[in-house]
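Model: Ready when you are.
Researcher: Fold this.
Model:
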Amino acid sequence: MPRITQGRIAPKHLISLDNMADLKSITKLNGVRLGSGLTLTQVKENDLVQNQYTALYDAICSLSLSKKEERGTLGGDLCSAYPFALMACPTLLFDTEVAAAGMYPATHPEGMGVKGGFFGSRIIRIDSFFATRDSTILKKDELVKEFILPFLPDHTGSAFIKIKRGKSAYLGITGIGARITVSSQDRFAASRKVLGGKGDLIGILDRFAEGNLACKDVRLVVAHSRNLPRRLRSGEDALNGNVLSGTVFSKAIQSAMVETMTDIKGKTEPWYLQEMVKVLLMRTIMKAIDRGIRPEKKIRPEVAF
């Protein structure tokens, strides 16, 4: 439907999938499985998404959906493979797998629980799902049944900040996401006190170090306005396995910022673009860390920047 709306294709016939219940389910089996036919509103209202996959929750909440757009589905957004397919960024954060079904022999030993109607299935990693900026690797006889989000370790936080379309045209990016698992020898007692107090960012981070707050399983992703989202691996490496401090945080931000700037083709001054990217990275990473330390806090979605 997104491609038809954009005038990129004009099919002679359309087949409705509304009556396929398997495409509209949310189940827990070797991960959280989100049916491709779920509307974005249905995904947003699910407790699992709100409490565990908060970057996805942020991304959907950042959209101002009209009554017509509320019918848009998770599968429709991702399969459009368009740079403004906003769900590509948070699903990449969670190492999502795509369960595709088609009329061919099964290529995955576990299958995906299809009760009937399909001869075979295969599982595709989300980072291999997109072929180009406007196409996927799906075959003509395939459809996406569900998206599989792996279970996350305790004290994993994630966040996504969307950039409003007017600003994204100038900056060259549409959003930044982060996912981080945190650990602490004192069960986060010192870190919780730090978050409940006041102080400048570097001071707060150095006080995190006193509680041996460490980061692991870090994912940083930037969504481009003219390209597919990509992971910022140099920034991830700077945080992974390290005790968080002002020095470590600054190195991670600098590494991620340099990597982001190599792909951006914005319409504004380079110094301004660099500062904006820096601020967005800092906000997103700190929000993810906060959610990892205090998972019991009521989740409030990030607002569009």
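Researcher: Now this one.
Model:
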Amino acid sequence: MGKALGIVALIFGIIGMIISLVIMVPMWGWGFSALAFFPYFPNIVAIICGSIGIKKDDSPGLAIAGLILGSIGFIIAVMGTFIGLARW
């Protein structure tokens, strides 16, 4: 299948990590808002594509990197949501 899913996972992992750090970390001081659920989507796409890409791609390196970035971004988003809800 090539490297398509690995590339998609890596791109969404990078986007999800950046969005999680840019939106969620400052939000810890602001409290809860509607933007709290926005970082979940690219991170979930990265996790799904990375998981499938590890099994189906020819070289799973990019898929593993995307899966790791998506997982870390998802954890940051969850932490930010709970901290924002606690301060709200």
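Researcher: Key takeaway?
Model: The chain has a mean pLDDT of 84.
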